[in-house]
Design brief:
This protein has 277 residues and is of the alpha/beta class. The protein is 52% helix and 13% strand. It catalyses: L-proline + NAD(+) = (S)-1-pyrroline-5-carboxylate + NADH + 2 H(+); L-proline + NADP(+) = (S)-1-pyrroline-5-carboxylate + NADPH + 2 H(+).
Length: 277
């Protein structure tokens, strides 16, 4: 069993640790780094996993999961670059940052796999997309897929699609939360207590997602199944179309994609090279 070090135990890092433990990974084969002592102690107490300094974690682990904010990546890479060898697998969960950045800073031949997860990892329902760097093999990808499979679903994609994934599923939960928030507010406007409105909307979202996952049909067909001639639903849908909700969502996802490209461009050897098709 590989020793895994999570470098940066924020929400996503903690969720991965929890998922690995629930999947049967031995706690003595897990490490994490956390700069805030109080949080480090809380995580150790909660999961029985040891907090280590960064150098020790890199030295002892076979798999290094980089889970820091993109703006914090340069100090971390400066610290660990002399310590990372090609025998270690580097898994980056940093939004927008290309594998080329890590390959350029680490020893030649170091395998890197780029991952775009999302926050439902907190409840074991993440959607993660993985892409192989130049030196990552099939075995490396399988290792990452097994690891991430403990906290949700995984798909493989070419790296030039990662910015689109970041915009769609990486940021996607925020769009759903935004819609749920608006629907709850509408329920309150119509006289429902907030708790009741919340229960109605959230369970409707859970049930609708379950129907989509079960493959009941294309979303258009499923929506038509709720939309009776001259009924309440078609009146509501007409207002959504009148206010351009569909176009607004598409524009929002395009804006998130542009920002992801922008973040990555700062860390490419040639900033003029984008990840777009």
């Amino acid at each position: 069993m590989s020793t895994i070090a999570v470098l940066g135990a924020g929400k996503i890092g903690e969720s991965l640790l929890s998922g690995l433990i629930n999947a049967g990974h031995a706690t003595e084969k897990l490490l994490f780094t956390e700069r805030y002592q109080q949080r480090a102690e809380e995580l150790t107490e909660r999961y029985g996993v040891r907090n280590a300094d960064v150098a020790e974690a890199v030295e002892q682990a076979d798999v290094l999961v980089v889970s820091v904010k993109p703006q914090d990546i340069d100090p971390l890479l400066e610290l660990i670059s002399p310590l990372v060898t090609p025998e270690k697998l580097v898994v980056t969960l940093c939004a927008g940052l290309p594998t080329e950045l890590f390959e350029r800073r680490f020893a030649a031949g170091t395998p890197v796999v780029r991952v775009m997860p999302n926050t439902p990892m907190l409840v074991g329902e993440a959607m993660s997309a993985v892409s192989a760097g130049t030196h990552a093999t099939e075995a490396h990808l399988e290792t990452v897929e097994e690891m991430l499979g403990s906290v949700g679903r995984v798909v493989r994609i070419p790296e030039n699609q990662q910015d689109a994934v970041t915009a769609l599923s990486g940021s996607g939960p925020a769009y759903f939360f935004y819609l749920v928030e608006a629907m709850i507010d509408a329920g309150i406007l119509l006289g429902l207590p907030r708790a009741v409105a919340g229960e109605l909307v959230v369970q409707s979202a859970v049930g609708s997602a379950a129907m989509l996952r079960e493959g009941e049909g294309h979303p258009v067909i499923m929506r038509e199944g709720v939309t009776s001639p001259g009924g309440t639903t078609i009146s509501g849908v007409r207002e959504l179309e009148k206010h351009g909700v569909r176009a607004a969502l598409i524009d929002a996802i395009e804006a998130a994609h542009s920002r992801s490209v922008e973040l990555g461009a700062k860390h490419r050897a040639d900033p003029s090279e984008g990840d777009e098709d």
